[in-house]
Protein 1
Amino acid sequence: MRPTETAAVGLDTPWADLPALLLPAYGETWAMVGMVMALVILVGGATGVLLYNTDSRGLFPRPRLHGVVSWLVNMGRSLPFLVLMAAIIPLTKWVTGTTIGIAAAVVPMTLAGIPFFARLVQNALNDLPRENMAVGLVTGSSTGQIIRQTQLREALPGLTSAITLNTISMIEYSAIAGTIGAGGIGYLAVTYGYQRFDTHVMAATIVVLIITVQLVQFAGDRISRALLRP
Amino acid sequence: MIEIRNLHKSYSTGQGTVEVLKGIDLTIEQGAITAVVGPSGAGKTTLSHCISLLEKPTSGQVLVDGRNLSALSGQALRSERRAIGTIFQHSALLRRMTVAENVALPLRNLGVVHREMEDRVAELLDRVGLLHKANAYPGQLSGGQKQRVGIARALALRPRILLSDESTSGLDPESTQQILDLLDDVRTELGLSVILITHEMDVVRHVADQVAVLANGRVSEYGPIGALVADPQSGAGRQLLPVRALPLPAGFDYALSVSYRHGPVDPEWLTRLSTGLGVRVALLGGSVEAHGEAVLGRAEIGVAGRPEAEVRSYLEQLGLVADPRDPVSTAAAASTRTATAPPSEGAEREANEKIGVRA
Ligand SMILES: Nc1ncnc2c1ncn2[C@@H]1O[C@H](COP(=O)(O)OP(=O)(O)OP(=O)(O)O)[C@@H](O)[C@H]1O
Ligand SMILES: [Mg+2]
């Protein structure tokens, strides 16, 4: 889309009006990211645990299943987000009944986030000492106990870093999703900044995004470090 | 008691299958410490995994108190494997759990009630002398301390068998001694069978009652420490109590390799031999030490004045077995000597002192 004739250059939104514009959009961004992350942590986390444990050295080696899941995850990760978003429009429509708005953005974001997070979880688990699993086994623990105690709990610092990284990616994706009218900060940047050359809004969204990402990273690092044991 | 019967274990790799254990037969009596030694790659860890049921044998059986655990799976396997406590090489404590939580892990997963669990954990930590570290994290402990926590955890479910794969490797001598004393104590007090996998012969000699030598996936030697050391033909015996002897000095007729037999040995045998038979005796090397109630001893002597057969039968009466000196050990001794210092009276005296100190 090109800027229309009426959207003349220099018609910047007054600084004083920016909060009224930005705050609801910011809330929308977090609503999207929050919803997506909840799904991603659940499904992607489970997929990561599955990848780790179906591996030849995992708790229940299943080479064939591992291969299939690994292939699916790679497929999900091979498409750039914009392409994925466009490609799955029929699915998005079928799931949400619409192709625009927050609901419509959540579907491609979740679909992109799950394989990414699955690999991050698998990596975090791979960093654990291999003996952890043997400890679980020889102490007569159940599969669930072994996964919870010797895998997830021990990997918490690594998992926190994974969540941080994934959250930042989702903030970025939410901005891309703004182009299909998803709402949020990204939508603001596209409609005001890009289509109407509103430099005030453009600048404000950039600042907000930078600060947000910095804060998320900072908080993530702090939590991750707090979870480390001597 | 553990009976291992005709145990085979193969792994399939890219290049086909490798048979790591080729028919192991072993009986481990209740209350005994059995050492399993052998060169790297002999299959010791594989054997330990078959005993702790981390691996399923390809064929053969591991019977614990008469029951074949390797035939079990699922819930039955989970509860039966609690009869075996495992100590890992690098302690394998969970890093984000405190010492107390690590020891409590097996109890918690068994569903022991909280109150009872706390008491048991305190009792276990007290046994290994680390009650004051209950709230520390593994990262705050020394290697020896971590290993003791590992032992406490292994003991948590009151196992009948304690399995340790290289649990003292990489520890300093003092920590090693602490661990060994601890294992010896729990064996005596709790009547546990201990299987000690190690490559350190000193460790074996200090605590084990019997030793099995694994070579190329088979048990090449197996028996009580005393019997192996007393047998001049036993390679394991020579490794258990090595003697780095001097070459036969000029003026002596022949060298003999002497082992203390299992049973009473006259401590004055050297003097007896010399005065009783009227021969000249040179001590070329030797080592004598206490092993529980028994005495382990091996020596090499040079003799002049009487025929070999006569000397050997005389030594026999004193409780010693004598054989012509093993050519391998002579060669080894010769090569070490050239590498260090020429033979001298000093070296001989040193050998004598060694006997004196160790006896
Ligand atoms: N999972 C496996 N797959 C294929 N080969 C294996 C596997 N585990 C062990 N082996 C092979 O089996 C042989 C014995 O290994 P094992 O670890 O039991 O030896 P070890 O006696 O414990 O040696 P070390 O003293 O070095 O610990 C080795 O040649 C090893 O390469
Ligand atoms: Mg090994």
Note: Residues B 11, 13, 18, 20, 38, 40-46, 199 surround adenosine-5'-triphosphate (ligand 1) (CB under 6 Å).
Protein 2
Amino acid sequence: MNPRITLAIAARVLTQLRRDHRTLAIMLVLPCLLISLLWWMFEDLPGDSFDRLGPGLLAMFPFIVMFLVTSVTTLRERSGGTLERLLAMPMGKLDFLFGYAIAFGLVAAVQSAAAVALSVGLLDLTIEGPVWLLTVVAVADAVLGSALGLFVSAFAQTEFQAVQFMPALVIPQILLCGLFVPRAVLPDVLNVVSDVLPLSYAVDAMAHLTRSTTTSDVWADLAVVAAYAVAGLALGAGTLRRRSE
Amino acid sequence: MMKNAVEVAGLTVVRGRREVLHGLDFTIPAGQVTGLLGPSGCGKSTLMRTLVGVQAGVTGTVTVLGEPAGSPVLRHRIGYVTQAPSVYDDLSVAENLAFFARVLGVDRRETRQVIEAVDLVDHADQVVGRLSGGQRSRASLAVALLGSPSLLVLDEPTVGLDPVLREDLWAMFHRLADGGVAVLVSSHVMDEAERCDRLLLMRDGVFIADGTPTEIKEKAGLDRAADIEQAFLTIVRGEAA
Ligand SMILES: Nc1ncnc2c1ncn2[C@@H]1O[C@H](COP(=O)(O)OP(=O)(O)O)[C@@H](O)[C@H]1O
Ligand SMILES: [Mg+2]
């Protein structure tokens, strides 16, 4: 691994994103709009539904968006020949992986900073814990989404196929992460399944930060998310072969 | 200087379950433009990928610039153009080159020179996705020229280019070869054969001829005025008979 190359890749990915206004809007603006929509839906209802659902959304968006964007962009690199070219150059696999992780981690930081500012500042989401930690969770979550997206891109031939992994790998995590039904009251089997899905931990961490000022549970959840992200990156590295068929 | 940039003995490549290259022996000299010609599907790209070190399923000895193909030290010394233009469509020509220059650790000023070499100065700030097919493949070629590689492996770099431009590119390949670079250029059309110093004619994963254009025509029993396509046909029919 070579920092010059890693940073070159991160900078290049960011330039590409900047060029693509629609994707940038999807990454940065759409989460804010959806959170506002959710807040509006519950506005006339009694209770604190927005406080209950908001943190889950803050955890979901970085994950989903980064999963989609990474799976499609790395698929393009694989099918367009640029990955083959880079692998024939003095680029290490880790340069490629971390380059992407850094670029998308940065975007995720901006994204969640915007979403958090909106939720807390304008929509009155109550957050007891430190707000910066919320952003840290979002970044870990984004890196996790990137890592998974990178991994699945190895199994898709077209961008359409890449997007198809979303219902298979992402939606079950959304359903079981505690957003719809608290994880504790899920049927036993589903509870166990939700225990092995990484998004559950990200949502737990976010929910904890809204309720409590203690952070040790958050760090534990964060460690789980980070471990999954590292495992995802390792799997992704396994799919980057210098020599291919 | 090294005489042969590439030395290959008993090269066999299996892709999927099929053997695609069947026990090839050949050399590629430094300082010459070597043409790898043969119909589509005969194994040209597979051979080039092997030299660059990105092909799996390789047996035999493949020595490139004195090292086994695929050695990390070679990654700075080979310029490779894949068959599809491998540049980023959403970046400009200049941005693409700046990126690859950073990956290679090459001085940024060199990007200017290679853009000039492929005649894209007027399009340097244009996004690659909006260029014509020929301009895109030249952008891809420019990347391969970065860092003054000792071996250039160019997979069908002149396909679909306008004849004037092709002329310019072949002149450039020869200039590079005169400077000591080993240039390997593939093509599935035979009409560029005469521009090469030396030819490797390939069919179904074996070489049917190896030599200068004149030597190959002589081997086929044709005179100098004949073209390589005729020689190719004569040799193939002679082997079949
Ligand atoms: N990824 C692959 N997996 C399996 N076989 C392949 C693959 N790519 C090419 N081939 C086969 O290898 C043979 C040689 O292909 P290639 O080297 O691309 O030929 P050329 O470049 O001369 O057109 C062809 O028969 C092709 O079908
Ligand atoms: Mg080919």
Note: Chain B has a mean pLDDT of 93.
